[in-house]
Structure formats: C-alpha cells, structure tokens
Design brief:
With about 325 residues, the protein is an alpha/beta fold. The protein contains 12 helices and 11 strands. Strand 5, helix 7 and strand 6 form a beta-alpha-beta unit. The radius of gyration is 20 Å and the shape is globular. The relative contact order is 0.13. Belongs to the LDH/MDH superfamily.
C-alpha cells in the first residue's frame, strides 16, 4: 500500500520544487551554534551546511555532525583566515559566535569579545557581492547589528534589506507565556513584540494579542517584566547555564522563514532591522520578507497608554544602544 502511495505523481512536485541552499554558521562550535547546527543538519532544503569557528573543539563538533545521516553536505573551517572562504556562495550567514553572558562573566570582556567577533565577520561580509542574507544572534544585538551595518557600508556593498538581528526568541517566549497564562495552545496565539532586544528595550503588545484577552496596566507590566527576565530566569534554573536550546530553536524558525522567502514564498520574521520610524535608526518587530530581503515592518494602532509609556522608555534606551554601535568607526 505504501509503495502505491509513494509512486503516485501527486507526491513528486514537492520534491521537484524543493530549492536547495547553502547556510554558513559562524561560531558553529559555540553552545548555541552546536544545537543550531544539529537542527539545521535535518533541514531538507539545506544542500550544504558550512561551519566556521576557531574554538579548539571545532573539529570534534564537525566530526560529531558528520555522523548524522543527511542529504546535505557539511564543510568546516577552523582557522580565522578561512572565514572569507566559509562565506563564499552562502545564501544565509548566521552569526552565533562570541561569548554568552553567564553569571560571573566580566561584562567588559564579554562586550569586547563579541564586538571583535562581529567586526571581523562584518569586514568579511563586506567583500561579498551580492550580499548574502545575514542573521546576527550574538549579543548585544541592539549594538552589534548597527555596528555591522556601519562596517559593511564603509568597506563594501551594504544592502540593509539583508541584515537582520535575530529576535525571534522574544516572539516565541511571548507566545509561550501568553498561552500558558490563558490555557491555550501556543500555535493559536500571537503576541507582537517590538522595540529592541534587551531587558530594557523589549516591549510585548498585549493589546494586539490574538486571541484578544482582557488586560490592564498591571497585567501588561507583569507580562513585560516576565518576558524581559526570561534569560535570567532560565539561567538561574539551569544553575548558571544560559538558555541556548530555545535560542537555537528560534534561529531555526528564523532560518526556515528566510529560506522560504528566498524560494519565492514571502513570510514574516521577528528581527531588528534598519528602520527609523521612531528615530532610532534600527527597530525590532515583525518584518515582512521576500526574495529581496526585509520589507515593511508591521505597524500597530490602538496601543494602550501604558504600552506607549513602556515603548517610550524602550526607544530612549534603544537609541543609545544603536548610537554606541554606529560609533564603531570613530574608535578604529
């Protein structure tokens, strides 16, 4: 019976219509990177998965991944000098390297390492024409994405439609929290999240939630606080280990949407992109994407007065974060 079903012509167009893509994960041996590479290894639309990292265990990670039966090829690079080669012919580049800010991590050291990681990547990206899509996951996104934009613009060909700070985790968390609060299935819920990507700039819009639920200022404040503290809460529950699993999954969700868009199926992603609607130069929210990259960001009306208050504070901090990132060329 199964042989008869599989031989029917109705199944063939799906395999024939499958487009194939090359995805490069820079920082692929990091905690987030390893989980992400595992998830990407199972994606049928990825012809070639390229992993770049300079960590000492990168070769072991590559060997581990190679033992997963997959139709896709896997290629690894372990030298800093090989970064340019790892980006060649990539449709999508995902930056997940640098350090995670765990308890006890020196903030200055963390920021310096992550800044250098994105600086190096941005300079390599600037050499590519046409530019691949790029999703930056390395924190702090509010600062590093504008910095990458300035570097690429200075050294090469910059396409603002193809540079994204991946903030999908904010939308997924908001959906999960909302569903739990109201005893709903997460797939039946939407809670838009706008602003930036930090514990001072993330703003969920409960007034725009689907399904609509009763809310007041206290409910909005409590929900916003919980969403902003998700990193802290998970890290504490994991005894000092950051939430790498959910973040890696969120990058997979982002990746699927981008590859669908490249294949001619427009969609939406949650991301920080170049957007000056509020005078911040960059803004995070629900972004329409197509084959050319980022399109219009979703706009909302009828926000509550308290949401406007939270958004005002968020935008003030986001503006500072973005300007710190844009100043990078003045310091080099």
């Amino acid at each position: 019976m199964w042989n008869m079903l599989l031989s029917r012509k109705i199944f063939r167009p799906f395999s024939l219509a499958f487009r194939k893509y090359q995805v490069t994960v820079v920082g692929g041996a990091s905690d987030i990177g390893q989980t992400l590479c595992l998830l990407l290894r199972a994606q049928p639309c990825i012809t070639k998965l390229v992993v770049h990292d300079t960590r000492v265990h990168t070769s072991g990670v590559l060997l581990d991944l190679s033992h997963i039966p997959s139709d896709s090829k896997i290629k690894g690079y372990t030298d800093e000098e090989a970064l340019d080669a790892s980006l060649q012919n990539s449709d999508l580049v995902l930056a997940v390297g640098g350090e995670i800010q765990n308890p006890g991590t020196n903030k200055k050291s963390w920021l310096t390492k992550n800044t250098e990681f994105i600086k190096t990547l941005a300079k390599s990206l600037s050499k590519l024409s046409p530019s691949p899509f790029c999703g930056i996951v390395t924190e702090p996104i509010n600062r590093l994405v504008p910095m990458a934009a300035e570097i690429i613009r200075h050294y090469g060909e910059y396409d603002p439609k193809k540079l994204f700070g991946v903030t999908t985790i904010d939308a997924l968390r908001a959906r999960a929290l909302f569903a739990s609060d109201h005893n709903l299935h997460p797939h039946d819920c939407i809670v838009p999240v706008i602003g930036g990507h930090s514990d001072k700039t993330t703003v969920p819009l409960l007034s725009q939630s689907k399904p609509s639920k009763e809310q007041n200022d206290q409910i909005i404040l409590d929900f916003t606080t919980r969403l902003r503290k998700c990193d802290e809460i998970v890290t504490e529950a994991k005894k000092g280990w950051a939430p790498t699993l959910s973040v890696a999954f969120s990058v997979l969700v982002f990746t699927r949407s981008i590859l669908d868009a490249l294949g001619g199926k427009p969609g939406k992603v949650n991301a920080l992109i170049e957007n000056n609607d509020f005078g911040t130069y960059f803004l995070s929210g629900t972004v329409n994407v197509n084959q050319k990259g980022a399109g219009e960001m979703e706009r909302y009306c009828d926000l509550t007065q308290y949401e406007c208050y939270l958004l005002e504070g968020s935008l003030e901090q986001l503006r500072k974060d973005v300007m710190n990132g844009k100043k990078v060329l003045e310091m080099t």
